[in-house]
Amino acid sequence: MMAEDKLQFDNIHTQTIESEWLQEKSVTLDVLRLDKVHPVISGNKWFKLKYYLQDMTARGFTELGTFGGAYSNHIVATAYAACLSGIKSRGFIRGEEPALLSPTLQQAKAYEMQLQFISRADYQNKEIIKNMHPQLYWINEGGYGMAGAKGASEILSFAYHLTKYSHIVCATGTGTMLAGICESALAHQQVIGISVLKNNFSITREVNALTQKRNFIILHDYHFGGYAKHPPALINFIQHTWHAHQLPLDIVYTSKTFYATRELVMRNDIKEGSKILMIHSGGLQGNLSLPAGVLPFL
User: Which of the chain's ends, N or C, has fewer CB atoms near its CB within 10 Å?
Assistant: First the structure.
């Protein structure tokens, strides 16, 4: 696929974090920098999309449809991947059309995605919307589904020396990436999902539907107020992390994951001597919703 030709998988590497809070517990922490794949089809996005796009082409569809919010990494990544592959795309966006599009939706529109805004009530009835557009090849929000999890299961193949890790930590939205990680994690490894949505307790059922593995837990206390919420404490944490480690984090997923990882180590919920791999799932474009100058790496 043409989109895959634009990705730079050789850029993926593990970044070792060195800090007093890790040294005190004799814990090692590596971050798998999936954000290095591409600035738009960033992080886990291509892995979750690739098998859908292959299936779409094989079945003769010429246009895809998908769902997402105004700040959805999935929307902009899908728009760009479709554009590169010569595929038409249509994004069904939750909520009324705003006077000014978010940076995410501006990008998606620039990548030739047709945007269609639907009320939050109608958004809850996605099957009705799908049935109204049978000509579209449908990809669920966030790439949720077996094809998305299959692609996500390939992420750990880029973690060299995978066997050394005792824990793998990743952000969890739809649960697609988490399911894929569970599939490819080794028998001695515990997978920890950090839910970025408030009170999203049904996510365990969603993950279980995509994998037979039960080697994971999902933690619900690190959403900082809800999806995409970013109070000053979180912004300060992102700034500090950049200055200390030159590790760019986003306000939706990776900042909350890195924060949770630190807390788990400091509280001994991840025991001393553990070796942790955190998945940097990309999504840095979400930071574009912040005012200029808030984050030093924008």
Answer: C
